[in-house]
Design a protein that fits this description.
With about 140 residues, the chain is α+β, with helices and mostly antiparallel strands. It has one domain. Helix content is about 35%, strand content about 35%. The strands form two sheets. A five-stranded mixed β-sheet has the order 2-5-1-6-7. α3 packs parallel to α5. The radius of gyration is 17 Å and the shape is globular.
Length: about 140
């Protein structure tokens, strides 16, 4: 393996679509997007950890997140464009969710120990704004 291969293997990021909504049943989002969520919950149900251990209280709103870990790539905005195109195909649902008080964002999680970057074009920002989308970018020093 060459140094370039080592560098490519170390590149990684996580891209997610996160949806918060006052009351929606997350099963409706799973059906609409034809994708199983990484995690979800419905408003009013008892809170739990990711392992299912009980937490105090009930969920104050519904939540649904689908995520994908991408390896050996640094062009995270290509993955963002794929997610954006998927949401544009469901523009009516996105508008409904936002109109009912929901929030939708594409999240990019980047490793802090690597130089990784990309360019968010004006066209991509326009497309996201047209849908009412937010972009969340986080850097994690120990992202494994």
């Amino acid at each position: 393996m060459t140094a370039m291969d080592d560098e490519a293997a170390a590149l990684r990021f996580v891209i997610s679509v996160q949806i918060w909504h006052p009351t929606i049943d997350p099963a409706l989002l799973t059906e609409a997007f034809r994708r199983a969520p990484f995690r979800c919950w419905q408003m009013g149900l008892p809170r739990t950890t990711m392992r299912g251990d009980p937490l105090p209280g009930r969920w104050p709103q519904s939540y649904w997140v689908a995520r994908r870990r991408v390896e050996a790539r640094r062009d995270f905005l290509v993955a963002l464009l794929e997610k954006l195109a998927g949401l544009e195909a469901h523009a009516a649902l996105v508008a409904r969710l936002l109109g009912e008080g929901g929030d939708i964002q594409i999240k990019v999680s980047l490793p802090g120990e690597r130089n990784i970057g990309d360019v968010l074009t004006a066209e991509t920002m326009r497309r996201m704004a047209a849908l009412g989308m937010n972009l969340d970018i986080e850097v994690f020093p120990d992202m494994d």
